[in-house]
């Protein structure tokens, strides 16, 4: 009897302590900046907006991810919208990329998703395919969401099958950002746009002689799939139930190359990379330690403005093989299925995509605008850096092929698996060949659940 | 009779806020997590009953899970004894009657006040970073290194253990109270008999303190198993490098909120509950061999 009592007390103790523990976890997890509600004064402004709209007060929740500069200008766009639509109050909810998705899923479970959600291509199948997002076709047809100036190619990036689950906010293309002055100071010459990965690797020893590195890293989940495209392969099978390739050769070639750069000290060592915050302020190129950085075109503007020195843009090697280059929606806006104010949400997205004053605040930070009219209108006011990006994306559009379809469900886990595998290769826990097999088998296992 | 019934009602009424809170915020979530642990639940669609699949996968087909278990056990077995030893050592220092002892006691308790917070974890990643305090200090004594202790697979977990040891305050306070309860005459008698300090420590202090050690050991072991915040902040939510700081609760959290596998994560939580229960029980079982209750003789 006494024993039973003891174990009962013990169980209660363990449960209550675990209860406390998990509370703490939640606190830590939700440490993302709390969304500040905008001043309510906008609702009291004179009701001079277009008379045709309903004037019932509407509250619209808009969620996005980003860094501080994106939060700042997005709030300005929201203020502008509220001043034009006095009956609308917008509750912004913003966080970093990772926290954005951590907040969304429980919201979805509670049927409480924000009305307008900034969507990423890697989550589109999860949310769209699982009935969380509204099909926007009816809104584009009835004109509430005006896409008359948006090309079909740009629009199709938000489609799953025939359903338009997300509106593309801007076009992105992959690029390499090169610090030409640093390269020439070290005795190198600026490569042409037809450069190869080998040309890039050879710059390693040149930069090393000057105490610099090539770049901090290349994102595995971005550049390995690109490499696959240049070999005529794809990361994911069309049905999303497996990887798109069965031959490990591209993996082995790519990671042999990657490892040789790493081993000769041309990339940032992994222990230091683990501490990088991933912001431009913290980037090795921006800090003047690396000759290049690799990423999406919209990131170029922040890079050069942080570094305060001019950079050159080059396409990623292999872009001219198998038409590997592609335009990708940098991000989308979606409307949640559970939203009660879908029409107002559609109007807000339409404003974001088409309004010239709004886009003069945004200035292509979410990718080159998809509306041809907006693109034209912005041209005179672009800074030289912004113009470079617009030109590059325009050039890329002429030299690209259709992007891969949105990543299948499970891709988030596959991306992490790729990163883990690459680290194990670089730490010499696995050979490249072993890594190739392990990655393919485990990724296929994850995707087989679909 | 009637009066007694009324008393019950009043009693329950006063206890109602707690009982309600306990039912709604503890019992219901605990039971629903048990249900979810038998489902495939991605938060976006309604849960799908899969029986024991989650538990099966955990033990037969999840390398990372095994890795996180070994990381967690390493962490617990290293951090708990070190932390307790450290706490006891400091408690004994602070048990001396010296001027300004109150100040020292507060000062030593300070790290625990700011304890498991996010700020300390961020501070920690600065201290052990590649250009952190530790490397600067090593530079001063002539060891030049620019490795990041946090990013290096061999040392990453040890920075977490060091952080846990540094937060020894609450155990220290309890030890201090225990030390004060040991009658001074025991020590006087022992020194009259010619026992030196070391002998006094092992023959008097440790046995008389053993019930308190047991209490601290259990509390600290349970909380060590549940450690989340430092690993989450210091490894930026990844549990890296090479999963060497992938503590159990961090992996659980990743499964739940990064991969959207609530069913699997719930199953992990239940396994953790059972394992922690077993470990706690084992500690209780062994206690009869080393815990000394003064009142035992009177039983």
TrEMBL record, chain A:
InterPro entries: Bact_solute-bd_prot1, SBP. Keywords: Signal. The keyword Signal applies. Residues 27-54 are annotated as: Disordered. Residues 1-21 form the signal peptide. SUPFAM superfamilies: Periplasmic binding protein-like II. PANTHER family: ABC TRANSPORTER SUBSTRATE-BINDING PROTEIN YESO-RELATED, ARABINOSE-BINDING PROTEIN-RELATED. This is Carbohydrate ABC transporter substrate-binding protein (CUT1 family). It comes from Cohnella lupini.
Automatic annotation (TrEMBL), chain B:
Its main location: membrane. GO terms for cellular component: plasma membrane. The keyword Glycoprotein does not apply. It is found in: Cell membrane. GO terms for biological process: transmembrane transport. Keywords: Cell membrane, Membrane, Transmembrane, Transmembrane helix, Transport. CDD domains: TM_PBP2. Pfam families: BPD_transp_1. InterPro entries: ABC_transporter_permease, MetI-like, MetI-like_sf. Belongs to the binding-protein-dependent transport system permease family. This is Carbohydrate ABC transporter membrane protein 1 (CUT1 family). It comes from Cohnella lupini. The lineage of its organism: Bacteria, Bacillati, Bacillota, Bacilli, Bacillales.
């Amino acid at each position: 009897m006494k024993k039973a009592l003891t174990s009962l007390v013990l169980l209660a103790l363990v449960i209550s302590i675990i209860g406390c523990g998990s509370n703490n976890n939640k606190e830590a997890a939700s440490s993302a900046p709390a969304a500040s509600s905008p001043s309510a004064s906008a609702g009291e402004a004179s009701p001079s907006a277009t008379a045709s709209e309903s004037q019932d007060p509407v509250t619209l929740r808009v969620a996005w991810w980003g860094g501080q500069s994106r939060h700042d200008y997005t709030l300005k766009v929201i203020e502008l919208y509220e001043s034009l639509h006095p009956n609308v109050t917008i509750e912004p909810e913003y966080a970093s990329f990772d926290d954005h998705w951590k907040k969304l899923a429980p919201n979805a479970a509670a049927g409480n998703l924000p009305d307008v959600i900034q969507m990423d291509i890697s989550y589109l199948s999860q949310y769209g395919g699982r009935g969380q997002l509204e099909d926007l076709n009816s809104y584009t047809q009835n004109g509430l969401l005006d896409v008359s100036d948006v090309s079909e190619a740009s629009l199709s990036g938000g489609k799953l099958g025939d359903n338009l689950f997300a509106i593309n906010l801007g076009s992105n293309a992959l690029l390499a950002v090169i610090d030409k002055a640093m390269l020439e100071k070290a005795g190198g010459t600026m490569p042409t746009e037809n450069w190869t990965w080998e040309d890039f690797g050879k710059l390693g020893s040149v930069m090393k002689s000057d105490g610099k590195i090539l770049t901090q890293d290349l994102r595995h989940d971005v550049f390995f799939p690109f490499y696959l495209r240049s070999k005529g392969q794809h990361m994911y099978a069309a049905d999303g139930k497996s990887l798109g390739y069965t031959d490990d050769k591209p993996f082995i070639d790519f990671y042999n190359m990657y490892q040789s750069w790493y081993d000769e000290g041309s990339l940032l060592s992994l222990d230091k990379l683990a501490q990088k915050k991933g912001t431009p302020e913290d980037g090795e190129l921006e800090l003047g330690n690396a000759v290049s950085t690799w990423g999406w075109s919209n990131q170029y503007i922040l890079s050069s403005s942080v570094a305060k020195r001019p950079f050159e843009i080059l396409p990623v090697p292999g872009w001219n093989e198998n038409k590997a280059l592609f335009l990708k929606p940098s991000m989308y806006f979606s409307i949640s299925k559970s939203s009660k104010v879908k029409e107002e949400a559609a109007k807000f997205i339409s404003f974001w995509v088409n309004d010239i004053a709004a886009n003069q605040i945004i200035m292509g930070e979410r990718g080159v605008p998809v509306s041809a009219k907006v693109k034209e209108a912005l041209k005179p006011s672009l800074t030289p850096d912004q113009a470079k990006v617009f030109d590059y994306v325009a050039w890329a559009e002429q030299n690209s092929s259709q992007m891969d379809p949105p990543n299948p469900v499970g891709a988030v886990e596959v991306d992490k698996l790729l990163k883990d595998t690459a680290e194990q290769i670089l730490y010499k826990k696995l050979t490249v060949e072993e890594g190739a097999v392990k990655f393919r088998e485990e990724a296929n296992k994850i995707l087989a659940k679909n | 009779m009637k009066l007694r019934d009324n008393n019950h009602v009043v009693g329950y009424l006063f206890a109602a806020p707690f009982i309600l809170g306990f039912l709604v915020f503890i019992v219901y979530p605990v039971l629903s997590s048990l249900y979810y642990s038998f489902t495939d639940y991605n938060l976006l669609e309604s849960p799908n009953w899969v029986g024991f699949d989650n538990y099966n996968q955990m033990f037969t087909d999840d390398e990372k899970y095994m890795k996180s278990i070994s990381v967690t056990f390493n962490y617990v077995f290293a951090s708990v004894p070190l932390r307790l030893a450290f706490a006891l050592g400091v408690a004994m220092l602070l048990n001396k009657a010296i001027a300004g002892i109150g100040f020292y006691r507060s000062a030593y308790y300070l790290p625990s006040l700011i304890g498991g917070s996010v700020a300390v974890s961020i501070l920690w990643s600065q201290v052990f970073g590649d250009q952190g305090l530790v490397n600067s200090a090593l530079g001063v004594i002539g060891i030049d290194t620019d490795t990041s202790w946090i990013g290096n697979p061999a040392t990453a977990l040890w920075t977490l253990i060091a952080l846990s040891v540094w937060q020894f305050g609450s155990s220290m306070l309890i030890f201090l109270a225990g030390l004060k309860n040991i009658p001074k005459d025991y020590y006087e008698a022992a020194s009259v008999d010619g026992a030196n300090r070391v002998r006094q420590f092992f023959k008097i202090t440790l046995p008389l303190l053993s019930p308190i050690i047991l209490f601290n050991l259990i509390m600290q072991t349970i909380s060590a198993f549940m450690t989340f915040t430092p690993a989450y902040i210091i490894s930026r939510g990844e549990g890296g490098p090479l999963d060497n700081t992938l503590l159990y609760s961090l992996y659980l959290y990743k499964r739940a909120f990064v991969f959207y596998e609530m069913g699997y994560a719930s199953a992990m939580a239940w396994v953790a509950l059972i394992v922690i229960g077993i470990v706690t029980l084992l500690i209780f079982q062994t206690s009869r061999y080393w815990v000394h209750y003064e009142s035992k003789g009177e039983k």
